[in-house]
Fold each of these.
Amino acid sequence: MVARALTSDGTPPAALTVPEFLAWVKDRPGRFELHDGQVVAMAPERVGHAATRFAAQRALLDAGAAAKLDCHVLPDGGAVHIDDLEVASIRHDLIVPSVAGAVVHHQGRSDGNILTRIINAGALRLDPPGLELDVSAFFA
């Protein structure tokens, strides 16, 4: 069940565009996401999720440094609107569940298709840009 967010008078906001959502959520307590125009209330982040997210960011940052790539890693949580894998320069989308011990890797292909793999051990290669790291590093 998805928890809909409510306005100050107790009613859910109407379908919102991204700019409308960003204005609505600004300085509002709690965590919210926008899904198909609908504001969804999110549960507070748990420690396990935060630890896994940090380990994944650290693993990606270390892999970039080891490959001597001029790149950077940003934590999630920023209000950036993109359609994943529809931007030509975005080739990889990683889902790292904190309890599964596996990484779901969506790789955008030059033919417009998306290759999805579930990797629970061994090397993960992200090319471009030329990163290689062990999946276990996401859960350190």
Amino acid sequence: MSSPASETNKHPTDGGQDREKGKPTGRGRKVRKVAKNGALAACFLAIGTTGIGTWKLRSSLPVLTGEHRTVHVEHSIKLERDAMGLPTIHAKSREDAAYGLGYLHGQDRFFQMDLLRRMTAGRLSELVGKAAVGTDKRFRKHRFGQMAKEIYDELAVDQKLLVDAYSKGVNEGLHRLEDEPFEYQVLQTVPEDWQPRDSFLVMLTMLCDLQPMDGSPEQGLTLLHEKV
């Protein structure tokens, strides 16, 4: 008759191994195989995701070399960048220079420009979601969108030509990218073309940054006038 200890030795341990032979049981081998395959799949997924992300990011970066034709300039223009990436525009007219400036901005800074115009117009939540609804409410009451349109409509002809040339440059620079700016890929949306009035929305954003929007300076001056 076997002792209790010898009877216990005939059964597998919790680790899925036979104590006598020191080898994993069929169930233990299956678990290890599944774990190994899962780890490999996760590794390949991480590598693939990183590769795709890197490719999408690089494809949204500005195009620094090459030539392209456009109907929006009167003469040829040249855009040069130094070792730090700072651009220089060579143009024969102000309109062509404005187009070149817009082209550079469209390639380098379109998402930031989009945030500024949307914030002032009270449309930021359309891009980033509910978190910006409060900001939109504060700005919409000022009707900056209508104000920007009126400013543009009242421009002199030569000034309007400059703003139009800049806007055309912004849009062409944006569309010449191999892919949308990376931020739009993250947000899973596409950018809207730049409109001439949007430049004035950005200026109004700077105005709001430099002074309170609640009218407190004017209220303070009024109170001071009444007391003095």
Amino acid sequence: MINRIIDQFSRFFVGVIFIFSGHIKLNDPIGTEIKLEEYFEVFATDFGSFFQVFIPYALELGLFLIVLEIVLGVAVLINYRMNLTTKVLLGLLLFFTFLTFYSAYFNKVTDCGCFGDAIKLTPWHSFYKDIILMAFVFHLFWYRKRYDPLLRTMEGHAVIIAVTATSLFLGIYAVRHLPFIDFRAYKIGNTIPEQMKPEEQPIIEFIFEKDGEKVRSQKFLTEQEGYAYKDSHVLNEEKATAKITDYAVTSVDGEDVTQQTFTGAKLLIIMYDIHHSSAENIDEIRTLAKSLSSEKKDVAHAGFLCGAGPLVRVAARWLEVRDVGDAGRPLLAGERAEGPADEHAPAERLQFLDAGVADGRGRRGESQRGERRQQHYEAMSREFQRVQKRGG
């Protein structure tokens, strides 16, 4: 009786955890891509440049791992080919456990992204979670012959194929659009200036040594009192750190104009890399930008944010709309456009700011084409003009 309870609990516990974790990451595969890039960069530094080969494929690898995680969770719940399923489960969890331990012990990647942006875990918490999960996965592996399939062979195949196809479709959709449930600091409706402020002031704990013993205090104790300073750390680091710490905008002259982007209505044309931006539909972008820039300057302003980084998270340049070169990208000061743009680079996005509030449903990834793309620009223009009238 006890063995049966442990068997069933292990199956449900592992299956639910894998499905939940996979769906959280499936909501925003870009987040998993960013985490994998961080790991590959760390491994390239610590183990060899070979890992740099994987960086351009981080999104594809991340989506594969996410779908695999969900499929394995479903497979465990229906006892689908448990001999194969438990072996893959054990291998995948060993891989995750190594990553979390390496992050925790060497303090390399401070957020593993196990549950995306929904649930933040420290590296050590992630490692302990994997160790607990490992016990149940090992039980499933060791007693895998006890688990009889709940569905007939063809029905089991159908369920796994359907779950794989649905997860892959949802993942691709989330990459090409915004997350279904947005947990990010830059999500639509968030006021960026507010997200740049910490919830609390940092509470610092100092560590001293006196008479051979460690003494902890939130007050700095002096050497005159016999205390020797050893170390310090922030007790409320999570709440003392602003959710947005990487939003900064400078002019072509190097002037900080971040606060100017929070006044009035702004339409930002964000480019990951101006040298690899698609020139397709640049005429529509140019027309939209110039038409908005010709309106009242105190209310309407269109500009380009150019640089490298995910979405708005970029230390970028703020350019007043002057001209767009033949290569399909804005010209920097003293620069001439040379050479064609990369037609295949998904490097641009529209973002609308209404007094610092993210209000534009810009798309990520490969841009929409043809009539749908034009309708998107027209909708952004109408929204911008609506807020302009409201503000004016």
Amino acid sequence: MINLSKFKFWVKPSCLLIIISQFFYFNSNCLANTPIDNESTLEDYNQAVKTNPKSAEAYFNRGNARFKLGDKEGAIKDYSQAIELNPKDARFYGCRGDALSKSGDYKEAIKDFDRAIELNPKYSDAYYNRGLVHFSLFDNKAAIKDFNQAIKLNPKYADAYHNRGYARYFLGDTKGAIKDYNQAIDEPPPKKWTQKNTLPNMIKY
């Protein structure tokens, strides 16, 4: 186990937002469920939109493809079009919120996550991603509240335990942080975890 009480942060407050971008990431099921390898594959999604211009799903899938290729602005436009065609699908708001978050538009991202949760109260990823936005805005209490709900809906949500541990540590709850880190270790680690993403590499004796 990690005894965090023996450590001190070396991170300067002015660098915290940069660190957040490195240590916290959004859970994009939008991306995971969209097969795309290159720009040519995107053409297939473009064709689907041309063939079915009234299909919200077609715009949604192309939005996912654009997002996966790094075109956040294009993805947001497609998600918005999908929402216009079908404003009752929580996924559309959740994925647009994800893209907005990665674009730094946290205020609008929260609105989308709020709407996604309103449409689907069991949308654990929306709670998780909203929690990360709250953390990015230095609202650790709100972040923990969202991580709590994500874990309640998905008790094996390793990412949520991991990031709730960070939020708890920043609030001075060392014991709670250790408990969360240990729980996260017991679950399958997220793919983006690396050696530099662990707390001991952020702190020093």
